[in-house]
Amino acid sequence: MYKLIWVGPSDSYHFGMGSTVYLQDSPATPSATATDNVTMVSGWPAFLSRCHSITPFCSPGNTFFLSALLSNCRLNGDSETNTTKATSSLVVIADSRADAIAWASCSLLFVSRRPPICQEGIVAHFNHRYVFSAIDAPVNWMAPVGSSAERELLDMLDLLSFAVPLYGVTCAEGFVVGASALENEVAANFSSFGQFSLEVLAWVLYPTARHFRNLRVVRRLALIRERLSSSRESDTPSRLNVRRSSLNSVSTSGSRDQLGGVSLQAHAPRQDNAPVNDELLNEDFFYSFFSRSMYRNPRVVAATFVSQLLSWQIVQPNSVVWTWSDSFAQKLQDIRVWVLLLLLVNSLWGLFVAAQEKRAYRIARRTYLASVEILAVVTVVSFVMRDKIFSMCETKWTLERQRLYDFTSFPGFLAHSYSFNLGLDSVVITPADVLWVQYGPLVHIIDTSFGVLTLYSALKTTYFLRYERVAAWIRRRWGKRRGPSVIAGSRMLKPTPSMQDLLQSTRQPSQQQEPRYERSELEVLLNCPVRAKSIIRNSMELEKPNSYGLPEATPSCALDFGVMVRDGEAHSRICFWGVFTKKHKRISLQPEDGESPSPRSRRRSSVAFSTPRSSFTLLSSSVVPLNHNPEGPRLALDKPRKRLSVEH
Fold it and tell me: Within a domain: residue 371?
């Protein structure tokens, strides 16, 4: 049984894994026996000193075996009379380690009867090695002093004491089967049991995870219902504020975030006959808006990066399940490293924007990368490299001598057995070669995926440029020759609505050059080139004209950088702190004649478009319309009695 999820009760998120092997028709021919003066790779040939033959259990079309059928074996009997026991058929499975056998043997002996090996590191550090609780065996489990059971345990410990090297010892457990069982059943099923879960944290994290999971659908429905009611009902601004504040009490996590409270402006109440033109009700905007992630937040980026590196360790034990499982449904699809590629693309593109901001903006206007495309690229690359990924566990075990692979003892077969390397207990830091075995496949996936994604983005950009030129040529050629009626008939050749804004500047014949790039008012306020950095988005739409006809970043792109723009107002997003520049953090209205500011003017600031004539600036909740001054810092107020001051 394998438990895969760190969060959850002990009986959830787990499944059983089994592998079916078949008994071979003929025994394996050994290249040497234990009596020969040769060095053996594993202890499998030593069984031939007591048994007549070894017949492996292998899966169809494979020569790898972990279990075998031993025929005509002579086992030790009573040590006092030096007798032996003969068995016709004995099935053994080499799935035990030498330290486990030594620890179990010492635990069944009284303390005064334990040999020196029980005080050595192989046994003394066993509980610490596997994070087991130190529990003493009951007295009735102990082998009586002087009994045959005690002598058998002492013989086993004596054998392990003189075994050099210890990692070359093959320990197996077996059971006797009758001839009738072999005639009727030729296949044996061996199940593996394990767990990869932090049960200590399960009771703490599971209720919270379940709470947020149940709120995913609830918060979407609540937001849609709130938007519909606010656009169709004739509510006053105060009632809308109360309703929206109640909805904001539902917090969210992950890529779909509850946005900050939206406060209506006092000077612009909604009329009963106002047309319903809500952009949030548009399906395309819904998809682009609610798919925005939080991977622009430095704290989220750092936590995600560390989490992805730690979760890569889950692939290591799961690779055994992938390799040894029979059912395809039980093979784990857990190569979820596409987020690392997304973070890498964001980081490298941010460096390019810092060096060539204007060029980056021109590229971002002509193309984009969707998160689904990044996911698809990583999936394809991971599938191609799956053999290398799921062999890293076996490679690591071989390098650390925790597994034995015997190619020489039985020609044509690969004998596998578990082993124990005592030298690993003294290793405090993971060696570089072992660390590379673990994270080398991850590095190869990321760099290969980045190369494929770069090639894909270049082809996509070329396609968009070609499409733009063909569309412009059709408009220019057929528009002049046949007039407006022909243009209306050829609208099927025009770009899609998502590319409409991108090609808007190229539709006018007089405009042959790129428009001059300048940061928008929102980008100046955030001190961040939002449009130039938004290479990863889910649609071609990058910018839209504001009330003055100047390009402004779309609300979905602004949301990526921690700002929600809605109805001319901007609010900082959850988990984003300090998104506005320091000089704009606090703004208040102060009267010139010395009167104290009203309580409403001391409320938190927001970013707003006050009127179609106002510039994009920070206002307190008491909205005061400002005359638009395109020259910059100098602002003029409609009411000369008050002045706008900025507090640093």
Answer: yes
